[in-house]
Amino acid sequence: MSRAVVYYSLYGNTKYIGESLARHTGAQAVELREEGSRKGVLGFVRSGFQAKTKKRSALVGEPWNRIADCDTVFLVTPIWASSGTPAMNAFLDHADFAGKTVHIVTVQADPKGAGSEKVHNSIAERVQSRGGTVEKRHSLTGSAPGKYAGDQVLDEQISRIL
Fold it and tell me: pLDDT 10s per residue in the chain (162 long)?
């Protein structure tokens, strides 16, 4: 059985979670990297707008090809402006989930997870429309934009998934 953890991270919280999940599950880690930058105030505003309007970003390479032989895929993404990220949107547009079991993991600043169900449903619909089955959904708390929550905070939440 082959596994992959596909993740996008801008500030490090989601990267830590994605790579930790990959280590603990024996999965390959697939980092989504965007062409271009999201740095600075304008990058922050543009990021929120693109997320809210469900835009897609140009990704480096073709990361969707790296899950071709996988049976299980973890999709790990932050929530921006109560929406999924442009990088994950681009990945979902290209990935073939036929016959794959998918786990959705979102990370956001709000400790109550407000809006996570909407994002989970949106991702699940796209996975299912491309032949996949969503098994579990998890909402984790990172930190405020631009901040890192810390290994201990994130490790405690990762343990709930495992």
Answer: 799 999 999 889 999 999 999 999 999 999 999 998 777 777 776 766 677 778 788 899 999 999 999 999 999 999 988 888 999 999 999 999 999 999 999 999 998 888 899 999 999 999 999 999 999 999 999 988 888 999 999 999 999 888
How many residues in total does the chain contain? Answer: 162
Spell out the long-range contacts of 24-29 with Cβ–Cβ below 8 A and sequence spacing 24 or more.
Answer: 24/158, 24/162, 25/74, 25/162, 27/3, 27/72, 27/74, 28/2, 28/3, 28/4, 28/66, 28/70, 29/4, 29/5
If residue 20 lies in a helix (H) or strand (E), which one and from where to where? helix 13-25
d(CA 147, CA 97): 33
